[in-house]
Amino acid sequence: MKKIPVLLMGCGGVGRHLLQHIVSCRSLHAKMGVQLRVVGVCDSKSLVAPMDVLKEELNDELLSEVFRIKSTGSSLSKLGSLEKGGYRVFNDSELSRETEEIAKLLGKSAGLAVVDCSASMETIEILLKAVDLGCCVVLANKKPLTSTLEHYDKLALHPRFIRHESTVGAGLPVIASLNRIISSGDPVHRIVGSLSGTLGYVMSELEDGKPLSQVVQAAKTLGYTEPDPRDDLSGMDVARKGLILARLLGNRIIMDSIKIESLYPEEMGPGLMSVDDFLHNGIVKLDQNIEERVKRASSNGCVLRYVCVIEGSSVQVGIREVPKDSPLGRLRGSDNIVEIYSRCYKEQPLVIQGAGAGNDTTAAGVLADIIDLQDLFH
């Protein structure tokens, strides 16, 4: 049985579902000759780990308890530090030190997959140290790959040890497909994608004549948006995904190089207007402009889509008119779609489409990335 030690950083929606997938897939992985040993789970405040990470692991009963605790919004510190339970809980000042210690112990011996399912910039230093120690890194967190070029270069220096499929398109094989095209020597000259399930839903609902304010309220009720919908409407999440794809193509660009169209003006930003004020008084002022753009697009035989366009070293993110009968125009709901144009896919692009959002789907993509690293473990 090939054993893969796993250290998970981040127990939000994606991290919790990853633990659930690991437990539910035990028999499947056993048939594949693989066992995932979870040797550490941490949130922003605490780390829970077995007494001896070289010989022991967190059992499935404890992983299920972690899922339950985090589902209530509580910290892992709620588990307490019970040696008789076979695990320890480290808090605050101990967190970074003990996480690095696990990487040191396992990185050069049995190997370790450090999995980042957080949404934090604070994991970058730990990830860089893990790579230096010979660990593998699996990312759902986009921020390490959209940080400075110096950080990006250090993470991308050993591509065989890094997996980040779930940073773009959740579980869709966007990164893998793009890597295969690049490896074949087929030059990619253009990528167009609807990379936000939230904005995809908003744009497709606008086609039916609904006002933007009503659509965003509905999306928030359905759980499609962040607690503050402006986190989605700003376009920043799409820009991060575009930057990841552009850097994968070899472009040496930073976030400031990307032209981003926000769906709300600066005066309605989080620092100037509360969430409630924005939803009840601010966003309704945007309805008329969007309605006019929808009608204008319709008169041209088009629909509006919030897209990312990568062409050469240029990355642009914003609303565009696309033909109704195009793959982007036919997109409905919260699906993602990516069109890749290259020498081989010149007239008819390679189109990748499917569910591009959701904790369950994203966690499944992360799990597949971990299993894909199995050849690097004893």
TrEMBL record:
Family matches, as InterPro entries: Asp/hSer_DH_NAD-bd, Bifunc_Aspkin/hSer_DH, HDH_cat, HDH_CS, HDH_short
Ranges for domain Aspartate/homoserine dehydrogenase NAD-binding come to: 10-156
The GO molecular function terms of this record are: homoserine dehydrogenase activity; NADP binding
Q: Does the keyword Amino-acid biosynthesis apply?
A: yes
Co-factor requirement: a metal cation
- Pathway where it operates: Amino-acid biosynthesis; L-threonine biosynthesis; L-threonine from L-aspartate: step 3/5; Amino-acid biosynthesis; L-methionine biosynthesis via de novo pathway; L-homoserine from L-aspartate: step 3/3
So what family is this one in? Answer: Belongs to the homoserine dehydrogenase family.
Give the protein name, as stated in the record: Homoserine dehydrogenase
